[in-house]
Amino acid sequence: MELNVIGAKPLSVSDDVFGGEFKQALVHQVVVAYQAGGRAGTKAQLSRGELSGTTKKFKKQKGGGARHGDYRAPIFVGGGVTFAAKPRSYEQKVNRKSYRVAIRSILSELNRQGRLKVVEGFGIETPKTKSMVAKLAELQVSGRVLLVSEDANEALFLASRNIPYLHVVDVIALNPVSLVGSDHVIMTVEAVKKVEEWLA
């Protein structure tokens, strides 16, 4: 199949990468796994048995008031936590093949919906926000925009960092969450070739 390149001749690409079937269940699984992998999992609380302090029974067993052992019980302020959270990993295993199929599926759906645009290059030589805004207006994109470059240079990053709805990544940093969360994705021809080579 062919992708339309703005201001240039169409680019021939693989049907599997940019024209495959959309696998919603797999895409959901991969997105959830990617987000889970980013969680710190460092929350820690003390249980009743881990608190410092005396275990002396603070009042007589009988003679008024509820029967109790010590002040480290969860019902008291400053007491231990009933089911104390401990550091853990939220990482979910996703096979490399499944991950690539999900990326292909997302790209195919973006292409079908007309939300994927391909350009020869961004042409941002100086790190000016005004230049980037003008370029986006020229491409007629709106909402959250993801720019994918074959090798995003410093000028491109600096020109885009003050635009809240714009996110710039290179091919190595391309991920399912960024793709799913974008209203429009703009890729350079070289980036398309690298992605195709990666997912082929």
UniProtKB/TrEMBL annotation:
InterPro entries: Ribosomal_uL4 (IPR002136), Ribosomal_uL4-like (IPR013005), Ribosomal_uL4_dom_sf (IPR023574)
Domain of life assignment: Bacteria
Keyword Ribosomal protein: yes
Gene Ontology annotations for the cellular component aspect, listed alphabetically: ribosome
Keywords, sorted A to Z: Ribonucleoprotein, Ribosomal protein, RNA-binding, rRNA-binding
Pfam families registered for this protein in UniProt: Ribosomal_L4
Membrane-spanning parts: none
Family: Belongs to the universal ribosomal protein uL4 family.
Role this protein plays: One of the primary rRNA binding proteins, this protein initially binds near the 5'-end of the 23S rRNA. It is important during the early stages of 50S assembly. It makes multiple contacts with different domains of the 23S rRNA in the assembled 50S subunit and ribosome. Forms part of the polypeptide exit tunnel.
Self-association state and partner proteins as the record states: Part of the 50S ribosomal subunit.
Protein name as catalogued: Large ribosomal subunit protein uL4
Species in which this protein is naturally found: Dyella lipolytica
Taxonomy of the source species: Bacteria, Pseudomonadati, Pseudomonadota, Gammaproteobacteria, Lysobacterales
